[in-house]
Amino acid sequence: MSPASNTAAKDPATLTGGCLCGAVTYSTHGAAGAPAACHCTQCRKQSGHVWASSYVPNGTLEIMGEVRWFHSSEKAKRGFCPTCGSALFWDHEDDPFICFSTGSIDGPTGLTLRGHIHTKTKGDYYDINPNDPQRED
Description:
The protein is mainly beta. It is about 5% helix and about 35% strand. The protein has one helix and eleven strands; from the N terminus they run E-E-E-H-E-E-E-E-E-E-E-E. It is globular and about 40 Å long.
């Protein structure tokens, strides 16, 4: 379930979104990839539950406002609003794309969840539909 191997969303060539307080906004330029729900420990701690995100190729996400970046590993960083704390972005230096929170998108997305990743470390307080595509790591 690598993002690069999944098809992009049918339409929206441009999505907009932002944080809870409106200090950070973004626009995509080009079709966004099908989102995944990540159940890893870092994503759950960052979001309070499951982190669902879509992605666009590097250079096609325009961010307006100040983003604070937290390096959550040697190669990955997470971007959030320094005012309201909304978790917005995930960026891995080896990937040719940047991820953005599907929950932060304004209005209808036109996207369909492609599946669940890092299910091996999911929380014990919820279940994933066994019919949904899943990847343990």
